[in-house]
């Protein structure tokens, strides 16, 4: 059995039709810096106003904004870590830090929601007069701060779940602040004290609903699931369609980071003198079609012998035979 290995690590992430090549440094370093600075100042001001103005909605917003500062710091730290060189111990480098940061972020968000929910229930049980004007003023500032920060990350949120986590946090916050302004106005004009905590409940619901996708995707990435946007059956069929390939088995696709994807596969194909050309062509094609930049391919010119523990990747081999025939 002839074995040909090709380890391709192509680091150029920009290619036609996709925007996966996010500069995690440069402009995003500035975006993280601005976002953290502005939000810290705002959290202090908003928390003080919430206590002074007796507003559950403002306090819940301040609590959520504090979790945003933490999440921005986490995402920034992970983006910096991901750029560090690989070492003898960490042979893939620290790229997966971006996945872990995104996961901790999603968990933090839900922890903050739990805290805010507790506060809101307390305010609902013991309603107190709310300073509507102050609430509207602070929330108005919140729309500006969060809207601006979200805009800083908007260009990167399509291709990187780490940046998308930051973007979603900020966008949600801007929308929440809009809700708080409306609530402040209603309380001010109607004097219905129960409106403030009710709006807080609505805000919580919106955040929980909007963040579910982020939580789901980060859990999948941390479990090394095939990244969203890549269909394994399509990858398998694509490999089967390559010249001379009769079988595909031991196909694995997993995320190295929130931006980079790796693939290993065994292809059964008659040995020819053009094997190197074939492998180079495959590397380019995998990047173009699936945005998979790190591929390891083993070529075999005969059907592999099953492993003793049954057959490793048997199911895949059978599927590929069925697809080929």
UniProtKB/TrEMBL annotation:
Keyword Acetylation annotated: no
UniProt main location, coarse: membrane
Residues annotated as domain Cation efflux protein transmembrane: 36-220
Region (Disordered): 1-20
Coiled-coil features, chain-numbered ranges: none
UniProt keyword annotations, A-Z: Ion transport, Membrane, Transmembrane, Transmembrane helix, Transport, Zinc, Zinc transport
Pfam families for this protein: Cation_efflux, ZT_dimer
Cell compartment(s), UniProt: Membrane
Chain segments annotated as transmembrane: 31-52, 102-121, 133-154, 166-188, 194-215
Family: Belongs to the cation diffusion facilitator (CDF) transporter (TC 2.A.4) family. SLC30A subfamily.
PANTHER family, A to Z: CATION EFFLUX PROTEIN/ ZINC TRANSPORTER, RE54080P-RELATED
Name by which UniProt lists this protein: Cation diffusion facilitator family transporter
């Amino acid at each position: 059995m002839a074995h040909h290995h090709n380890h391709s690590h192509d680091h150029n992430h920009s290619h036609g039709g996709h925007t996966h090549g996010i500069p995690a440094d440069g402009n995003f370093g500035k975006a993280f810096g601005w976002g953290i600075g502005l939000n810290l100042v705002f959290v202090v001001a908003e928390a003080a106003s919430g206590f002074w103005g007796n507003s559950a909605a403002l306090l819940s917003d301040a609590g959520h904004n504090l979790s945003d500062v933490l999440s921005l710091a986490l995402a920034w730290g992970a983006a910096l870590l991901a750029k560090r060189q690989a070492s003898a111990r960490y042979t893939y480098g620290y790229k997966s830090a971006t996945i872990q940061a995104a996961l901790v972020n999603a968990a933090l968000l839900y922890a903050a929601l739990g805290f805010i929910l507790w506060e809101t229930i307390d305010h609902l049980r013991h309603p107190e007069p709310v300073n509507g004007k102050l609430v509207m003023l602070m929330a108005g500032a919140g729309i500006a701060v969060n809207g601006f920060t979200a805009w800083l990350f908007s260009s990167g949120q399509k291709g990187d779940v780490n940046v998308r986590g930051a973007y979603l946090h900020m966008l949600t916050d801007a929308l929440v602040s809009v809700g708080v302004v409306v609530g402040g106005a209603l309380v001010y004009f109607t004097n219905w004290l129960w409106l403030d905590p009710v709006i807080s409940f609505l805000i919580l619901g919106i955040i929980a609903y909007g963040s579910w996708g982020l939580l789901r995707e980060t859990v999948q990435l941390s479990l090394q699931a095939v990244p969203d946007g890549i269909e394994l059956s399509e990858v398998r069929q694509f490999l089967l369609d390559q010249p001379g390939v009769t079988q595909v088995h031991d196909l694995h696709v997993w995320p190295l980071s929130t931006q980079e994807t790796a693939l290993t596969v065994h292809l059964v194909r008659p040995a020819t003198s053009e094997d190197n050309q074939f492998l180079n062509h495959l590397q380019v094609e995998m990047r173009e079609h699936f945005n998979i930049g790190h591929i390891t391919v083993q070529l075999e010119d005969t059907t592999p012998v099953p492993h003793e523990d049954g057959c490793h990747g048997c199911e895949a081999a059978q599927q590929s035979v069925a697809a080929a025939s």
